[in-house]
Amino acid sequence: MNSKTKLTVVLVCLMLLLSGCGASSVLHTGAGTEQTAESSRVPWDYRIQQATVGDLVGSDMTLLPDNELLPNDGNYATGDTIWILQFMDAELTTDESQKNEIRLSAWSTLKSYPDQASAEKDLAELKVAVTTEVGLVGVYKTEYNGDTRNFAVLELPTGNRVKQPVDDERYEQLKNVQKVAVVLEEVHDFADYDLTYAKFRGWANP
After folding, report:
1. pLDDT computed for residue 94 by the predictor
2. Is the pLDDT of residue 24 over 70?
3. 3-class secondary structure for 92-107?
4. Element (DSSP H or E) covering residue 17
5. Distance between terminal CA atoms of the chain?
6. What keywords sit in the KW lines (predicted)?
7. Helix (H, G, I), strand (E, B), or coil: what is residue 3?
8. Nearest 10 degrees: Cα torsion 105, 127, 162, 155
């Protein structure tokens, strides 16, 4: 094999190696296992706001002060004061160590109401407080500059894990248990009610 042929073979091998590296999106851990980050979009929060009807555009209306366009389902007139339901979702990325990265969307308007009571009724069905038992992954202590802090890691019914600071008394209560009673807020998706995301809101036994 002459020098020109050898150079061609080396270049081909390098191209194959580089193309193989570029095609892989798998994260490698030191233990030799392969893990990938998982991403999902979940319902995050709702709120109700007061708004004023602006211009009417066909079957739609603008909402002041932001001139957001919304269907005029209530047959409102310009200048009417109404209530609106707004929604925020989140892109939740969980890495191989179960750490969560959350990216929140902007608020978007879903629905209008003629009065506050009607809006609050829907809001109460979309954000529901429940008391239940969840899995306790474990508790641990950290120390920094002579200060000690305690944490508990909980696994919520929707599969996400949360870390909560705890005092010394609760640390002692939790260090030998596998389940703990908590208060959760279940946020339901407006379009698919069975799709929920759970948020920790406190301990059931203060």
Report:
1. 78
2. no
3. EEECCCCCEEEEECCC
4. helix 3-22
5. 80
6. Signal
7. helix
8. -130
Range 127-163 burial, b when 16+ CB lie within 10 A, else e? beeeeeebebeebeeeeeeeeeebebebebeeebebe
As to burial, measured by CB atoms within 10 angstroms (0-12 exposed, 13-18 middle, 19+ buried), residue 46 is: buried
The span from the CA of 71 to the CA of 75, in Å, is 9
Alpha carbon distance 198, 128 (integer Å): 9
CB atoms within 10 A of CB 53: 20
pLDDT, tens only, 70-100: 999 999 999 999 999 999 999 988 777 767 7
Tokens 């474990």 found at: 138
Greater model confidence, 156 or 35: 156
Our measurement of the distance from residue 143's CA atom to the centroid of its chain's CA atoms, rounded to an integer in Å, reads 29
CB 141 within 8 A of CB 148: yes
Q: Which position has the higher pLDDT, 24 or 46?
A: 46
